[in-house]
Inverse folding.
């Protein structure tokens, strides 16, 4: 599982001219899932994101988590995070999980993150053509791959 976590002052997801998710201060999480991912990856990544201290405290230091600032979260499926660019000019996506594997893992990740952060997690729509807008706060962008946790 691979995630790009962006601290945002606002973010939204639009599908066919309709806003399906919209937040103010919080996190936009782009989530890529591969065939090898498991519920262990979900638990580890969700816990990591819930506890990650990337929001400023009263001294301007990154010492607060999403829970401490009572921020919001949007999770968007992003199969292109597993793009292979080794050959040619057209990326390959063979490492990205097929929908029958990815959708249940994606849904489980969203529900686990909601439990871990004690807040509703908004989402895009798996497989849809989405327009994602954000104002990156900082900018702060962090990538995490569950296969690199050890």
């Amino acid at each position: 599982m691979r995630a790009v976590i962006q601290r945002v002052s606002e973010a939204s997801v639009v599908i066919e001219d309709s806003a399906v998710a919209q937040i103010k201060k919080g996190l936009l999480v782009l989530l890529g899932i591969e065939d090898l991912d498991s519920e262990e990856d979900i638990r580890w990544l969700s816990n990591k994101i819930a506890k990650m201290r990337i929001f400023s405290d009263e001294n301007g230091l990154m010492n607060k988590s999403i829970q401490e600032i009572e921020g919001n979260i949007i999770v968007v499926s992003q199969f292109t995070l597993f793009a292979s660019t080794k050959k040619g000019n057209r990326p390959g996506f063979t490492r990205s999980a097929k929908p029958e594997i990815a959708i249940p893992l994606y849904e489980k990740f969203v529900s686990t993150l909601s439990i871990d952060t004690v807040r509703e997690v908004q989402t895009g729509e798996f497989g849809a053509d989405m327009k994602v807008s954000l104002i990156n706060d900082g900018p702060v962008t962090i990538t995490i791959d569950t296969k690199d946790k050890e």
Remarks:
- The mean pLDDT is 95.
- Residues 2-148 form a domain with the D-tyrosyl-trna(Tyr) Deacylase; Chain: A; fold (CATH 3.50.80.10).
